[in-house]
Amino acid sequence: MSKQFDMVVIGAGPAGYIAAIRASQLGMSVACIDAWSNNLGEAAPGGTCTNVGCIPSKALLQSSEHFEQASKHFKDHGIDVGNLSLNLSKLISRKETVVKQNNEGILYLFKKNNITFFHGFGSFSGQTEGGWCIKINDSANANIIAKHVVIATGSSAREFPGLPFDEKLVLSNDGALRINHVPKKLGVIGGGVIGLEMGSVWRRLGSSVTVLEAMPNFLMSADSQIAKEAMKIFTKQGLDIQVGVNIDSIKVIDDYITISYKDNKDEHKELTVDKLIVSIGRVPYTDKLNSSLVGLKVDDKGFISVDADCRTNLPNVWAIGDVVRGPMLAHKAEEEGVAVAERIAGQHGHVNFDTIPSVIYTSPEIAWVGKNEQQLKQDGRDFRVGTFPFLANGRARALGDTTGFVKVIADTSTDEVLGVHIIGPMASELISEAVTIMEFRGSSEDIARICHAHPTLSESLKEAALAVDKRSLNF
Fold first, then answer.
1. 206 marked ligand binding residue
2. How far apart are CA 302 and CA 283, in angstroms?
3. According to the lineage, what is the superkingdom (predicted)?
């Protein structure tokens, strides 16, 4: 007889494992199914984020930042380092350790919250009076029944047409995290988050990096003032970023790759690289769900159709995270996981898409929430802007990192904060205050009147808010 659960979650990435935990907290019997394995064949829950995305990339970014600081900036602090060398295998090994710690942490949370975990692929096999039949392709080929099913199977890297990933020369985010030597020349197709972060890692470690971006302007999803500053800084650091690129062909020849393209002046160019990272977006991972058997509605791009509450067209079947509409962000997925568990329990789960922050973990970091200037102009909204440079912030000076600025945009008549955009040190942490203010529909005056500890980087947000009213105190 198949074991029955109140809720079964297919996928243990940020959306799935968080949904499972919240459901258990609310008194449900919960199972979670996930197929990800580490190089030893052991269960490795956490999805793309933990295994080949957010977590390992941040580990490599931190290590490469330490290396660059030691090689270029320690002397500014009176620290002399002689005969500096890079142990790449140790650097990669540390990243793997960080990943494993997160995998083990999730397994511990499952045990702590009495969640039954199955290591294998989960798919629909039918419907019964008690709910949905789920087949698990694992060592025991288990079958379970769930009253509610939450699909959280995540996404995978999009391949460049006609150029499959081999993870040796042509790399996805996975292969980009496992390069076993520093390439002399590294190409990156796509100037988004993954491309910039991975390009930054390998540039710091010694690669000559060229980023080819199809869009006519750099970082078009960011505020244009932030994007221009970022372009200037990254170029100065050594990244060769080309925008408005139209790729004609990519050829893999022996142990190198040749890219033929036209630049933004329609001039023909050719680039030869040792490794190529392709970061042109991600596609939902839904093809193994056996969705046609039960009539689950999936569009031609692989996304599962859901309503505003993440309900699919099937009763008691939900979908969250990268397999549904909205930004493919781990924190968005987590919020949907909590919201769906609460909705199943009869509560009113909440996800506000207008206050989901975006972060790029380069150096300097880039973070924003809300709308940017170009969006507000397009909307015909009247607004005021306040900016404050980290150059005028005492803590930034002490850190030796005064790059960038904070920008606050507020409605002209109501002073409600419409967007906050940051490029500079610890932008990923500073943006949380802006998210909180916007979630409560606060004003720039609210930020300006809040006491911020001194000296802190967060004072720059206060000063930018003061600058909206042209009364910045330190600039």
1. no
2. 7
3. Bacteria
Asked if residues 326 and 333 have their Cβ atoms less than 8 Å apart, the reply is: no
Give the pLDDT band of residue 139 (cuts 50, 70, 90). Answer: confident
**What count of other Cβ atoms lies within 10 Å of the Cβ of residue 374?**
14
Is 210 marked as binding a ligand?
Answer: no
Helix (H) or strand (E) holding 58: helix 54-68
Mean pLDDT confidence for 249-255: 95
11 is in an annotated binding site: no
**Residue 225 pLDDT:** 98
Q: Which domains does the chain have, with CATH numbers?
A: 3-157+283-351 (3.50.50.60), 170-280 (3.50.50.60), 355-468 (3.30.390.30)
155 is in an annotated binding site: yes
Does 191 count as an annotated binding residue? yes
pLDDT of residue 130: 84
> Mean per-residue pLDDT for 266-280?
97
How far is the C-alpha of 154 from the C-alpha of 324, rounded, in Å? 9
Q: Record the pTM.
A: 0.96
Q: What is the DSSP string of 254-279?
A: TTEEEEEEE-TTS-EEEEEESEEEE-
357 contacts 367 by C-beta, under 8 angstroms: yes
Percent of the chain with pLDDT over 70: 100
404 marked among binding-site residues? no
454 is catalytic: yes
CA distance 159 to 34: 23
CA distance 243 to 257: 20
Separate counts of helices (H) and strands (E) for the chain: 14, 22
φ, ψ for residue 395, nearest 5 deg: -65, -40
Cis peptide before 216 (omega within 30 of 0): no
Marked catalytic residue, from 66, 73, 350, 454: 454
Q: What is the pLDDT of residues 14-60, one digit of tens each?
A: 999 999 999 999 999 999 999 999 999 999 999 999 999 999 999 99
Instruction: Give the SS3 label for residue 98.
Output: helix
The angle, 0 to 180 degrees and rounded to 10, between the axes of the packed helices 193-204 and 224-237 is 20
Q: What does DSSP assign to residue 192?
A: S
ω into residue 364 within 30 of 0, thus cis?
Answer: yes
pLDDT at residue number 1: 57
Beta bridge partners of residue 250, listed in sequence order: 259
Task: Decide: residue 157, CB within 10 A, 0-12 exposed, 13-18 middle, 19+ buried.
Answer: buried
